[in-house]
Amino acid sequence: MKVFSTNVSVIFRFSSEEVSAQNQVKASVQRKIRQSIAEEYPGLEPVLEDLLPKKSPLIVAKCPNHLNLVLVNNVPLFFNIRDGPYMPTLRLLHQWLTSPGGVLDDEVEAETPVAIMAEGKQHALAIGFTKMSAKDIRTINKGIGVDNMHYLNDGLWKMERLE
């Protein structure tokens, strides 16, 4: 098993008390968020209506370090930093998106969101962005391969609901 160092971000060392604002978004903003998520994760299309129902209010919570949380029924489902791509929370990933036997797909390019799995485990332990392509990770075999954005037991993991 190859081991890579990671640059663990400190953005998720926060608690729900540090949320500066929660706003129900307009229908046009909700459509834009849904479209962005659908484009980033085309495999979610069959369950997107279950995850982000059109009739349920969509809340965006503003957090420290330019972090935005997308909530449905007070449950954080996706997050982004500044205007970056939306990434699923680990709880969402565990509920809907993981499968045993994860592999490093050679087609993965740098700056791609990925789930980070422990060998032999079914559920992801972190979500991050690749810092280099999968091919470079395999051939260079040193340096930062993935920049962790969200991991088990961080502030977002501990925030099951935002009241």
TrEMBL record:
Annotated keywords: Cytoplasm
Domain Pre-PUA: 16-95
Record GO cellular component, one term: cytoplasm
PUA domain boundaries: 105-152
Keyword Cytoplasm part of the UniProt annotation: yes
Compartment(s) of residence: Cytoplasm
GO molecular function: RNA binding
Keyword Glycoprotein: no
Coiled coil start-end: none
InterPro entries the UniProt entry points to: MCT-1/Tma20, Pre-PUA, PUA, PUA-like_sf, Uncharacterised_CHP00451
Single biological process term from Gene Ontology: formation of translation preinitiation complex
Top-level taxon in the UniProt lineage: Eukaryota
PROSITE patterns (UniProt xref): PUA (PS50890)
Major localization listed first in the record, in broad terms: cytoplasm
Pfam family, one: Pre-PUA
Name of the protein this chain belongs to: Malignant T-cell-amplified sequence 1
Organism of this sequence: Sesamum angustifolium
